[in-house]
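hiii, so i know i said id send this last week but things got crazy w the move. better late than never?? heres the sequnce for the chain we talked about at the cafe, plus the structure i predicted for it. fair warning i was half asleep when i ran it
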Amino acid sequence: MLVSCRLIMLSLTRYETPTLCKSSLFTSFSRNFSFSSTDPTTTIAQGCTLTTDRCFTLHDVQTFLELTGDHNPIHKSPSSSSSSSPILPGLLIAALFPALVGTHFPGVLYASQTLKFRKTAMVGEPLRATVTAVFVSGKGRVKWNTKCIDSSSRVIVEGEALSILKEKRGDS
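okay and structure toks below
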């Protein structure tokens, strides 16, 4: 069965509310998940797009820094007088891509990811991450274009990913 997915919106936020964000462009901050298929392990089609909006809090960043051992001060305090927030770690932002794929396709192997960091994003800034299937092989391999933008549609990070969907097992 083929997934009919023109646009799938996921909201993966847990603690955020729109008032924590600098912009109100992205205002859907709930834990509601919606998919275009009732079976998340069905085959994916080229052009399928998965999207999530996220606004990382200072608590999110502190937890990430503690887990990774990152001690770069730009992630702990404002980097300049023009900003009142620290810079988000790029890999924290990029972690939205495998989260999108893995949430929709449980058991998927996220095999590789290339990243190009274009702009910085600040704590509390609303972001939109999108993955789009650009190639789907018959063996469950999916090549994704990945992109995260800010509320002004500026690209923060982009790249490509490869995932391997788990095979559906037939009933014995």
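btw Helices lie at 58-68, 90-94, 96-104. thought thatd interest u
miss u guys!!
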